[in-house]
Amino acid sequence: ANRILGKRGQFWQEDYFDRYIRDQPHFDATLEYINQNPVKAGLYRNPQDWPFRGTTTPEPSTTPRLSTTPGGPRASRPQKASDVSNLRKEYIRDGLKEDDAHPNPIEQFRKWFEEALAANLHEPNAMTLATASSGGKPSARVVLLKGFDERGFVFYTNYEGRKGRELKENSYCTLVFYWGELERQVRIEGRASRVSAEESDEYYRSRPRGSRLSAWASEQSRLVAGRGALEERLRGLEDEYEGREVPRPPFWGGYRAEPEAIEFWQGRENRLHDRLLYRSSGGGGWSIERLQP
Ligand SMILES: Cc1cc2nc3c(=O)[nH]c(=O)nc-3n(C[C@H](O)[C@H](O)[C@H](O)COP(=O)(O)O)c2cc1C
């Protein structure tokens, strides 16, 4: 290139500087910068005449649109499971600063939960519940959050399934929410105890009749010979309770996980994420500390 141009010395600039394109104006400005490069170098007067132009000159009708869909320029989305190590995404949406965090983690959770609702996420109240046996063997599964306040986070389940058995042995549990589109995770650690019978009754009554009958039909987490056996049990219960109110099974109800620590995680650029950890200092007080990503 130097020979053709009659120049000497280094042709390409040393190194490079990469930046994420954040929005349409940023995209348009970058396009314009690239188009003006041959003009600035004195090679052509008009950017359109530059024969090696890889982009269109910005004109309202022809300007390429920046894709803002997930999996767009910020995400690497391989198609094969064997390429999983290449599946990564840069987190750039938001930050979480101590100054902006509510002093009370329940209120901070409310804010983020309302933002998850507003973002129309798929089942924003789905959370992973981790429990452990008395011997320390962990297990985890997804359950639905059905209420939260200063006292804790409530979910409903069968008291005799695996999680119920483990919580009886060891009341420590962890709840994890992952709101991917918002690049957020919330981790709640505490101890779970059963809600009152009245509270469980009230929620049970709000469930559809089919769900109420299924609560009776399932011995949660135990083996069953086949699906037919479960459906037969359900049909038997439908007959048994025909025209009658379905009472709550004594082995089914709610737990409230009372938090001791709540961590809010916000994904950030270059994996330098924000993590704020609230720890209960007793009597309703909370400390806030930052964790390294
Ligand atoms: C999105 C989603 C929501 C769920 N919600 C509940 C729930 O609220 N309560 C429940 O007992 N199981 C729920 N499950 C099923 C549990 O993940 C699990 O299979 C079941 O509770 C048995 O768990 P265990 O054997 O560890 O006790 C849900 C599963 C999914 C995928």
What is the compact description of this entry?
With 293 residues, the chain is α+β, with helices and mostly antiparallel strands. The chain is 26% helix and 26% strand.
Kindly describe this structure.
Its cofactor is FMN. Pathway: Cofactor metabolism; pyridoxal 5'-phosphate salvage; pyridoxal 5'-phosphate from pyridoxamine 5'-phosphate: step 1/1; Cofactor metabolism; pyridoxal 5'-phosphate salvage; pyridoxal 5'-phosphate from pyridoxine 5'-phosphate: step 1/1. Its EC number is 1.4.3.5. Residues 252-293 form the Pyridoxine 5'-phosphate oxidase dimerisation C-terminal domain. Residues 54-70 have a biased composition (Polar residues). The chain is α+β, with helices and mostly antiparallel strands and 293 residues long. It folds into 2 domains: 19-88, no CATH class; 95-290, Pnp Oxidase, Chain A. Helix content is 26%, strand content 26%. The protein contains 7 helices and 11 strands. Strands 3, 4, 5, 6, 7, 8, 9, 10 and 11 form a 9-stranded antiparallel sheet that branches. A two-stranded antiparallel ribbon has the order 1-2. Helix 6 (209-217) packs across helix 7 (227-240). The longest helix is centred in the first third of the chain and has 17 residues, at 24-40. The model is unreliable at 68-73 (pLDDT under 50). It binds flavin mononucleotide. The site of flavin mononucleotide has 16 residues, from strand 4, strand 6 and helix 4.
